[in-house]
Amino acid sequence: MRKEKFISEEVTKMQSSRNFFKNEDTNTHSEVKKIETFYTPKSREVTASKESLTVSEMKQLEYNFNEIQREKEKQLINELNKEKNDFKKLIEKEKAKFFKELIELRQSVLVKAEDESNEIKEVAYQLGLKEGQKDGYETGVQEGYIAGQLEAESLKENAHKIMEQTTEAIEIYKKEKQMDFIRVAAVMAENIIHHELSLSEDKLKLLLQPVLNQLEKAENFISIYVTKDNLENTNSYMEKMKESFSDLKFAVLVDESLEKNGCIIETNYEVIDLQIQKQLDLMVKDLYEGDSDG
After folding, report:
1. pTM above 0.85?
2. One-character DSSP codes across 133-176
3. Which residue ranges does the record assign to the Flagellar assembly protein FliH/Type III secretion system HrpE domain (predicted)?
4. Domain boundaries, the chain
5. What is the pLDDT of residue 253?
6. Spelled out in words, what is the top-level CATH class assigned to the domain 201-293?
7. What whole-number distance in Å separates Cα of residue 79 and Cα of residue 117?
8. Do 83 and 193 meet the contact criterion of CB atoms below 8 Å apart?
9. What is residue 210's predicted lDDT score, i.e. its pLDDT?
10. Burial, 223: exposed, middle or buried (Cβ in 10 Å; 0-12, 13-18, 19+)?
């Protein structure tokens, strides 16, 4: 550290007090004052300029970023699988309950039919017994037997009709309940998807990437329609996609007619509707038609 010394001289010329009172006798008096000042200059702060990252460092950063993304995707897939398994368990539980009710209903109908059959047989027997006592034992028994047979046949026919009606009612009930199960499943699936798919950047990737990977990027302009709330996240994700596909040409547009978290991808050759409700409607239709064919 260097110290610099500065010396200044102040010379003041003034008249003596005598000359101040008498003009005829002039005397000049000089006075010298000496001022010393020490100044310590501040040392310059030398900051090392940042060196640009090397190629290997850039690759390492890119690798780390991709690893983080993969971990996030894996975690999200695990969460979705857990929700799916829980949902399957709930459906199986409801199906078991439903079929138990059907078995109990069928058993109840059979017991009732058998009780009615026994009751009619007993009435026929008593009728034949009374007729036998009136017109003769043998004749009465024979006629009672014939009457009992006729009543038994009638009961048997009625029992068959009851069974047919019951079977038909069971099939109708089964179809109605099964359609209800499918609708409940669709509603639950929609709620789960809307809860998980808030269209944050990571989750949006799971929705868009499989579709974008299948599209021809060269000479193909891709228009992506989303709601206003999802415009910023979608733009951000597509800009990152462009880093991987330099020839990707796209535009992200707002369409407020779309449902919550809805998305439509339009290219030069096709339109892909990724709205959740439409996808679930197609799933419900396929499930119902598949069950009807079976």
Report:
1. no
2. HHH-HHHHHHHHHHHHHHHHHHHHHHHHHHHHHHHHHHHHHHHH
3. 156-281
4. 4-39, 56-196, 201-293
5. 94
6. alpha beta
7. 58
8. no
9. 75
10. middle
